[in-house]
Amino acid sequence: MARHVVAATHEIPPGGRKLVTLRGRSIGIFNLDGSYYALLNRCPHQGGELCRGTVTGLATSTEPGRVEYSRHGEMLKCPWHGWEYDIRTGQSWCDPNDTRVRAYEVTVEPGATLARGPFVAETFPVSVEQDYVVVEL
Amino acid sequence: MSPQDAPVIAAEMRTAAKLRIVDCDVHHALRSTADLHPYLPRRWREHFDSFGLRAPVPFAGSSPYPKAAPALSRTDAWPPNGGPPGSDLGFLREQLLDRYGIEIGLLHLLAPSGMDQRNQDFGNALCAAINDWQYECWTQRERRLKAAIVVPGEDADAAVAEIERWAGNGDFVQVSMITHTIEPLGRRRYWPIYEAAQRHNLPVGLHTSGFNGHAVTGTGWCSYYVEEQHHVAISQQQLAMSLVMEGVFERFPALKVVIVEAGLAWVPSLAWRLDRHWARMKDEVPHLTRKPSEYLRRHLWYTTQPADEPERPEDLRRIFDWMGWDRVLFATDYPHWDMDSPEQAFRMRLSDDERRMLYSDNARAVYGLA
Predict the structure, then answer these.
(1) Which residues from chain A sit within 8 angstroms of residue B76, using beta carbons?
(2) C-alpha angle with apex B83: B79 to B87, nearest 5 degrees?
(3) Contacts of B313 in chain A (CB under 8 A)
(4) Do residues A105 and A29 lie in contact, with contact meaning Cβ atoms separated by under 8 Å?
């Protein structure tokens, strides 16, 4: 387990995302309203590249003819079969009990702290003036 | 290829290489209709540009149901160089053939279709142009891909002529027709096509497609794509029943038919019901010398995608037992949104022998592939 500096916070604005590779694994980093979340870029259903999918909301209905759209921007839809996951937790909307995409812990750290380590950021220039997104993997 | 989850993918590719996968349903596509211009006589090129495609439905350039995804495809399947999913050979190699270690992919072109064109002469020219394009732009450029001879099946003479033009060319491994036809495909107007297919030892691949002006159901127009998706399976049962009951396999005892993308869990129940009906009503169809189930068992094969998923995954084993394991052909349906990944298509455990049959040996036997 190591902590990886993956981006400066301004690189991933609210609603944005960045794909990174950490220890051979492709990981998607998402910004929801200023909080950052990290998911494995592999849909547990059939292996599609989940983190390239559309960020969307939920269409729900209480009766035929009524549709409500909620949780705008909080769900990630796999590019293949359209399975939807909660970006915050990786929980599946289609199969909430048995299917969950691997989620990783993400923190935001000031550059001043990162300069002290220990972090994996060999190829990533860190400056003390900025904040950074850090993923534990 | 993006890294995704590299250790998992590496393991998948090792398994795939051992399996020598044959993918029985791959969809290529035109970048635009201009791709066919070099293969159309001037008269039909001008017709195409002036009038476009006209099937017997009021949906020119669209479909009666909103499909689940644009171009019916995975949203990550749009080629980086432009064009619709399936239209870029390099990207298809990367996302399908190389990524999954597929040794042979069988192409099914869904659109445009020449067979359901209202102008039959244009339909004939369109089929011929599509076959030339498939040969020059796909199978000659990528030896792992094999095409189907698309034929204008509503005009049997023209269809037979098109089969004769390509038969013996190893790039074409089957004859394909649409399935929503003017009459059920067992009717005699289509028999010359079966005669030619049998004579050249070419299976007939029937991928659900096409328009005939009728609702996709036998009970009127349904509202939703989710319903249409299942009517695919129902309409193919009707088709299988027509082929059996009309006596097609009595007349053409070596004919092979592959049902593509219509599920397969229905096969055993169809066989049981037809056998029971036939036992009581066979004097209506005295031309049948065997039980309906025996024709199904001898003459029809079925592709897997989208694989049936019983609540208890192991129940699928019983279905395969009932219908015959040798009948089942693996398919991805790339690049469509509901494709099956080779590694994850089946949720039940398979032995090595079973995997070899489903992923490779069965298809090689049907299509005569080495």
Answers:
(1) 48-49, 52-53, 79-80
(2) 75
(3) none
(4) no
Span between the terminal Cα atoms of chain B, in Å? 29
- Which residues of chain B are within 8 Å of residue A81 when distances are taken between CB atoms? 337-338
Q: What pTM was computed for the model? A: 0.91
Which residues are registered as beta bridge partners of A5? A134
pLDDT per position as a tens digit, B176-202: 999 999 999 999 999 999 999 999 999
The answer to whether A6 and A134 have CB atoms below 8 angstroms apart is yes
B4 and A CB contact within 8 Å: yes
Q: What is the residue extent of each domain of chain B? A: 6-367
Q: Does domain A3-136 have CATH number 2.102.10.10?
A: yes
Of A26, A45, A82, the CB nearest to B2: A26
A83-135 pLDDT, tens digit each? 999 999 999 998 888 889 999 999 998 888 776 666 655 456 667 778 999 99
Taking the CA of residue B5 and the nearest CA in chain A, the distance in Å comes to 5
Residues B48/B121, Cβ–Cβ less than 8 Å: no
Rounded CA separation B33/B83 (Å): 11
Are the beta carbons of A46 and B3 separated by less than 8 Å? no
For chain A, which residues make up each domain, given as ranges? 3-136
CATH placement of domain B6-367: 3.20.20.140
Q: Is the ipTM, as predicted for this complex, more than 0.90?
A: no
A101 chain-B contacts, CB cut-off 8 A: none
State the SS3 of B104-132. Answer: EEEECCCCCCCCCCCCHHHHHHHHHHHHH
Are B25 and B331 in contact by the 8 Å Cβ rule? The answer is yes
Question: In chain A, whose CA is at the least distance from the CA of B10?
Answer: A24
Work out the minimum CA distance from A41 to partner chain B, whole angstroms. Answer: 6
- Tens of pLDDT, residue by residue over B196-229, are 999 999 999 999 999 888 888 889 999 999 999 9
CA gap B30, B112 in Å, rounded: 9
